[in-house]
Structure formats: structure tokens, C-alpha cells
Amino acid sequence: MTAAVFFGCAFIAFGPAFALFIFTIARDPLRVIIFIAGAFFWLLSLLLSSLVWFIAMKASNAEDTKVQKGLLIFGVMFSVLIQEVFRFAYYRLLRKANEGLAAISDEETSPISVRQMAYVAGLGFGIISGAFSMINILSDSLGPGTVGIFGDSQYYFITSALMTLAITLLHTFWGVVFFEGCEKSRWWVIAVVVCLHLLVSGLSLLNPLYEGSLPPVYAVTVLMAVWAFFSSGGSLHNLSLLFTSKRSEVESS
Amino acid sequence: MAPVGGCIFHDCLICLWLCALASISGDTGVLHVLETEADLDWILSTGPHPPYMVVMEAAFFTRSTMVKMKNSSRVAGVAVIKSNTGPTEGFSPHTSCPNQNTGVYTEHYGPELANCNNTVWNPLGNGLSYEDFAFPIFSLKDDNQTQVIRKCYEDHNMRMNGSAPQYPLCAMQLFSHMHAVTDTVTCMRRTDLQNSFSINPEKLCDPLSDFNVWTSIRPLNNSIKGHKENESVVIAAARLDGRSFFWDIAPSAEGTVSSIVTLLAAAQALYPVALEAPPQRNIFFTFFQGEAFDYIGSSRMVYDMENSKFVIDLDNVHSLLEIGQIGLRNGQSLWMHSDPVSRKNTTVNKQVANLVANIKSVASSLNLSLNEPSATQALPPSSFQRFLRVRPVPGLVLADHQASFTNRYYESLYDTATYLNVTYPSDLSPEQQLEYETEAAKSLTQVATLVARSIYKQAGGEDRFLNNITADTKTVAKLLYGFLIMSNNSWFSSLLPPEALGRGSILGLVITHIINTLTSVTRFVQFILANMTGTVTKLNQSQCQNPKDVPGESKDLYSYSWVSGPVSVNGTTDPYCVRSSVHLSKALSPAFELTDYGSREYSTWTESRWKTIRARIFLVASPQLEMMTLGVGVAVLLVSLVVTYFISSKAELLFSATREPPNTTY
Questions:
Q1: Residue A204's Cα: distance from chain center in Å?
Q2: Number of Cβ within a 10 Å radius of residue B70
Q3: How high does pLDDT run on average in chain B?
Q4: With an 8 Å Cβ cutoff, are A2 and B657 in contact?
Q5: Please, which residues bridge with residue B119 across strands?
Q6: Could A146 and B634 be called an inter-chain contact, meaning their C-beta atoms sit closer than 8 Å?
Q7: Is the ipTM of this complex over 0.90?
Q8: Closest chain B C-alpha to A194 CA, distance in angstroms
Q9: Contact state of A8 with B662 under an 8 Å Cβ cutoff
Q10: Taking the model in full, what pTM does it have?
Q11: Of A81, B149, B160, B332, which sits most exposed with the smallest number of CB within 10 A?
């Protein structure tokens, strides 16, 4: 019966990411390449930060729980910073690549804009981050039991899936906003993105107090969605155009 | 914890098979502890969260409860918490008429005695071991792990004020998948198919097989099989195996150990006198393995004797004395059972009467009382019956019961040392317990002396030497300790080869595909007998393993074993070579030699192969929560697909940056 939980959590965690991939990325090979490379950059950042944490953990006393908890918090924060550094590095790489793409294309401009690259890179970061968070939990959810024999909450699978969904979307939005900030040399934008990332990861440390972690994270997600929409060229005017053209389509049909 | 199984198969008209037919991915059920009748109702009918995994106290492990569970679809498995003592009214999962289809009484031979028409030998037998259960049945020791299981049940699954407990509930999963199905014929046919056609054949089941142990006073040339001229042999026999409902638990104190210990002590008492003053006939001590499963060992030995594949044949057999269950004598008389049908023949009757007289005369000097049961009573289930099937050999079975067994726990897990009154004062160390002589030891020693002297007299030995034959109480005490309490003691370890390790219960059969472990009861008896009846030689290890080139040693007459010797204080051993005439003979049912898997003549028991036997406990969530998760997931997926399609189709409109002229991208 817990195939139900497996599929439910998989759909929750990866549904939107899957939809985004299918409809916006899968058709265009260049976007696929940027997506995969973005995922790879995130993996590198994870490798580096986990190496640091692992060494620190082995060097310290394994019995002392306070030290281990402290090391975990340090590890999380360090990892966030490293991820953002790698996002910046990827931005620089893509800028360089953009010039090359422009040179080899038939038209004189690059076939893909920086905004599109920002979105794809962000989604790449998001999906691989989600995969690494969620895959182990999904494989455990296939078994016949659920979490709780040692007193933990039985909603662990669902909340993990919801958190993963939020993180995936957040990485996408952060990618858009971050690249825009780099393009326009607005460094405060980068600082805010880093701070929000730290905030969200810090909130996840509050688990299993799921009321303390999930609603704020979703609030941040909505906020970032709005910011990313405006940052990527959207505006309220466009939204109203969307609805009026829809109405006119409906009227004319 | 120990499960039932391996699935043991048999071929018979009603295709009974005993096993736990569990699913390959384990059986899961909500835990419920069965302590009262109300719990039983809850499990079988009223509980709202089936299927249940029943954890039952030993008091509930009865036929009626188990059959109700077997017929219910609401039980996913059973775990029985063992108790040290059985129910006072007795409990025997064996059949009430053991080995009724492979004994000597059939519709052609003593039909009024067949199928226990005359005497029901095991009246308390409920046949549980021969039922087919579709779920795993494990036994749990009452220790810390069991406390964890109980605590999980109390924390999550207890009913509050009569209302049902809420999810999440504590559940247990038992893994005990058996590869074989249906019966021996099907299983062996499939195995044969695998062997013929598959590149990587997978065996599904194995025939039950081990070894019989035999030795003779005067060594016989074991390389020459068949009839031996001028050899007349008196056989003293006992069985080596026991069983219970659960795998690897077979204490079988009264059922088997009492007879093994008696015969070993008798062999030890007899040997020096028989060497000094050899009796007229040869004496054979034989221990049969596999008797619980339709006389595997004895049927094989008789088959080999008939077909000249054994060191002697049936013409060499003069008479037979078998030691049955003799541990519960409690100072009363012993009974000598014989077969009334063969005694209708006057020659046979005279020889049996002669044997009876010999034993009685010995008993009178020992202050033991012996009686014969009624002349029309059948022979109890015994290895002797397999000899009688082929030839009317004169023989007797010694037992402590007149008609039905005195043993209230025949072939069950409660037939323990405590039942036999082998108990030790609590302040003794293991080494002191090893030497301590219990009342049971003293009682069995008397019987051992009786057996040894009777055999000697029956073999034609002179009466003046009889008083020199006395069994040693200390040896009997040590044997009882080793077979019933702890086999990993200093005496046993000194008799085994250096590479042997200690283990717990040792009375079950060993299957061929497992390398014959050095700690099975067959091996123990083999090496103990070698120590008691053999001589120490000065050969070194390589000579011991290959004595062909050593002058004066003969591999045909003797067997040589390299044993570790007593362990000294600082842990070193002083191994030496023992020469004895103790041999092993294969105890595999003739049905498998003849590849007649559906044989009615011989035992056709096989054991199913299995891979993992384990269990785990965890919490399970309510099905409603699971379905809700799935529902939310599907909803999220569909909504995101719709929204993404919508946005991406309107992307040019929404994200006006794409409407800028191409050459101003940045």
C-alpha cells in the first residue's frame, strides 16, 4: 500500500519540476545542455561543502551531540554559501559561452538570452537539489512502514516532499533574480538572495517543528515568484493584457 | 527467534505438507498480543485493522487456537513467546500415531494393530507439526527483544476504554519464504528440471539426510560389504534425532537423549569386559538418525543390509535390543515391548522369550523390576519395526511406558532437561554442574548397567563376568549435561577435533547441502563413542589421516580420528589420534536412491530451501493518509502541468523581454 506514498510524494516533490522541464526545456537541446551543466555545478558545490563537513565531523568528537549539532549548522550554512559561489561561477561561464554562441550562430546574436539561461540554470540547480534531498526518502517510503517508532512525526514523507518542491522552485527563482542582479551590477540583489537562501536552510533546521518551517518557506517562495516574474520582464500590464486577450479570444470564438 | 520450517515435504495420499507458506516479500500485520480470549475475538472478528500479527503467550499455543488462525484470513503471522515449562495437561505437536504408514503394521501384517487400533501411543498428539500454515510462525525467547515488541504494542496498539486504537499502529513483518511448494514429488521434479535445463540450476528442496553411527565389539572389515561368514551379531539400537514444531529447537530430553545416554554408558561399561572375555557373538551398537521422519536411518540400514551394501546383512543378525524412551521411570518398572505377530512363529517366540529371560535374570540382580505388557499389544514406534518389515528378527524395545507414552511432551519444545528432572543447584559453576550427579543420572545409570549386562549375556557371554560390567554414574551425568544443558563444555570439547566450535541445541537433522557441521549430535555421538571404545595411538596428524602406510594399522577395520584432547589452563591443546571401530553410515532414505519420490515403502521427506529468516517491527500509517498523499501528489502534478503549459504558451505575452529587437540582447 505504501506504493501510494511513494508515488504521492514523488509527484508532490517533482511534479512542477517535471512539468517545467517537459514544456520549457525538453524541446531545445541548448537549454538541455545548460540545464545539465547547471545541475553539475550544483553537484560540485555539494561535493566541496560535504567534504569540508565530513572532515570537520571526523576530526571532532563523535559522541558529543552538541558539537555534532553545531557542526551540522555550520555545514548547512557553509553549503549555502558554496552553492551561491558556484551559481556566480556558472553565471560567469555562461556569459563567456554566450559570446561564443553568438559568434557561431547564423544571426549575429546568441540563440538564447541571458534571462532564459538564468531560468534554465536555476531550474537545473533546483531539480538536482531536490533529487538529492528526496531520492533516499522516496526509496524508504516504498517499504511497508512509516516513520515514528522512535517518536518522530509520521508526516515525515509528506513534509519532505513539500519542502523539496519549495526548494526546487526557490532555486529556479533565485537563479533568475541572481543573474539579473549580476547583469545590472546590483550587488544588493545577490546579497538578498544569499540571505534568503540562508534563511530557508536555517528554517529547515527547525524540523520536526513543521509548522515553523513549512509555512515561512512557502511564504518566501511566493515572494520570490513575484520578484522573479517582475525581474524577468513581466509586469502587471502584461498580466492585464493576458486576461483581456483571453476575453477577446473567447468573444471572437 | 526460530521459525517453523524449512518447509518439509512428504508425499502421501492427502498431500499433507508442513511448512510456513509465506510470501517472498515478508508478511506484515498489525501487532496484537494474545493474552485473553477477548484478544482472540478481536483478532479473528472484531478488530478493525486486519491483518494482525499475533504475538501469543505459550499458553495459547494449542491446536484449537492455531486451527482457528489458520482458517482466518485476518492473521498475517504468529510469534509464540516460549515458556520454560509446558502446559500441565501436556502438549505434543506430533501425530497421535507416530510413523503409522512406515511401521511394520499394515493391512497385511497385524491389521488389528495397524494405525494404532490397538494402542494409541501418543494420545496427546495434536498433529500441529503436520498442518499447512499459510503464514510464518516464529518462536520468541522471553528476553529483551520480546520486551521491545511488547512495549511497542503497549505504546501504540492498546485499546483505550474499549475503543479501537488510532493510527499509526505498531506492526511486525516476518520473512520466512520457502522455495518449495506442494509436495516432494513436485518439488523434486522441478529441481530435476532445473538441473537438466538451467545454466544456473536452483535447488528447491533437499532430501533429509545425515548419518547413522555404528560400532562393533569385534572390528569388522568395512571395505567388504555383504554377508560375513560365521558372524552372528546382537544389535543394541537407539535413535539420535528429535524434533519440535519449530526449527532448530529439539531438546527431546525424554524422547531421545535418555536413550542415547543410556546406550553410550552401556557401551562404555561393556567394552573392557568384552575385550577381556569376548562373548560368543559380536555386539553392534547402532544409533539411527532421522527416525522422526518415517525411519530414515533405520530404513536405510535395513535396505543396505538387504542389498549387500552394509558391512553385515540380515542373515548375520541374531537379535536386537532397542532402547526407547526410558527417562521417566521414576523408580518404577521398565517394560519390554515385543511384536506379537512375529511371535506367533514358535522359533521366533522362543528366541524372544530367551532374550526376555536373559534380561530378567540380569534385572533381578540389579533390583530393577521389568515386565512385559499384554501379549496382544503392538510394538511401539521404533526402529525395530523396520527390521521386522523385512524379516522376523527376534527383538525387544525397552521403555518406561506400558502402553501409551509417559512422555507428555513428545517431540515438542517442552521436552527439556527440567522435564527429565535434570536440574542443578544454582550455586554451581558450569564445570561443577558437568560433574554433578543428578537423580536422573543415577536412574539412567542403572538402566545402562542392565542393558550392558543383558547384551553381554544375550551375546553368549559367561555369567561370571557379568558383575564386572557396571555403568559409570559420572559419565552418565556428564553426558546428560552435555546433551541437555551445554554442549560447549570441557569434556565434549576435548573429544572433538580441534576445528569444532560450540553450539546450542544439536538434535535436529542436518541437511546434505550444508557441510556436515562438526557440532551436530551425530558427530558428538561418533566422537564420544570413539573415545569410550577406542584406543589412543601414537600416530601423528598426517599418519592419523592416512594410516595406510603405517604398519599394524588398518583402514578397513578401524577408523582414525584426530581429536583435540583436554584444553590446558593456558588454552593449548594436546591433540592425539584415536583408533576405534566407530563408523558412519549414510542415513538417506532409499526412496531417493531409487528416485521413487512418491514411494509408499520408504520415507520421502524433503526440506524446502530458504534464504532469509528475519523479522522487524515498525509503525504503519493509516490507509486514508496514504491515499490522501497520493491524491495530493496527483493533484499537484496535474495542476502544475496545466499551469506550466498555460504559462509557456503565453510566454511571449507575459515576459515582454522576448519582444525586444534581437540585437539588443544582453
A1: 14
A2: 16
A3: 87
A4: no
A5: none
A6: no
A7: yes
A8: 24
A9: no
A10: 0.84
A11: B160
